[in-house]
Amino acid sequence: xxxxxxxxxxxxxxxxxxxxxxTADGRPVDQIAEDAGIKRVSNGAFSDVLDxxxxxxxxxxxxxPVIMCGMIGSAQGWHEVPYITAPEQADVSGLSQGCFRFxxxxxxxxxxxxxxxxxxxxxxDVMRGEETLYLGATAGLPEQDRYICLPGTHSxxxxxxxxxxxxxxxxxxxxxxxxATSHSMLAPVLEAPAELDMDSFREGLAGAEKQMGLLNQLxxxxxxxxxxxxxGLSGYSFVSGLIIGAELSAVAPRIRQSGTPxxxxxxxxxxxxxxxxxxxxxxxxxxxxxxxxxxxxxxAIYRFQHCD
Length: 308
Fold this sequence. Notes:
With 308 residues, the chain is of the alpha/beta class. The protein is 38% helix and 24% strand.
């Protein structure tokens, strides 16, 4: 094991768990991924999961701290950490100071708080975990105004002002796609392809711009399939474009007006789909790998607490 390993960073979500052994400057020494999200941990036995991880690293420096982000700080997690509610605290300093800190097995553990701030339309919105990805994606960048996109089950668009999160908006994009393709009346007529049909995906993006809206367009997919105008494989890809397009069409005017590229924090196929979607709606983008972002965000909190 690298002698410079300094701390454990944990990204602990609803369904996923990832632990990283990291140096003080955020370089990964090792990592572990398990199917141990908080909803899969029985009887709140979160300490058992951490014990299992630490046992994998017998040469871990004594007293190495643990920094955690995500749903582990929710009411269903290890300890509920109150949301930060003031935009002026939604930066590395405020998030570091807002951590819930406790000791377990002679280790100091910090759980990063989530945020509860205004949405783009003035309603209240919440996040847990995405604030850490934001910190990582923007580490080392000038503290200027920018937008950040975090695709997922509940996609987030962050409006950052001068190095802090000012507001954000959440879209149930991934969840709606799962419901539509697995549980709705559409599901029996759709067929998941090995690879999305990108022509149909782009057609779905364009469909999201039609006046009748998402609900009408979703039903039209079924109508097209049962009347033989579209097959199930094409319909599946069209629905993907349609639902992602509904998200992007809502934010596109705001992002285009800003005149700056949006940072997409994603990996693999998801990153590709959002880059294609953003290009369709005239949103300039740059890309940041999601794993790199969470590691850098956890390291930013560690450095503020232990090094700065």
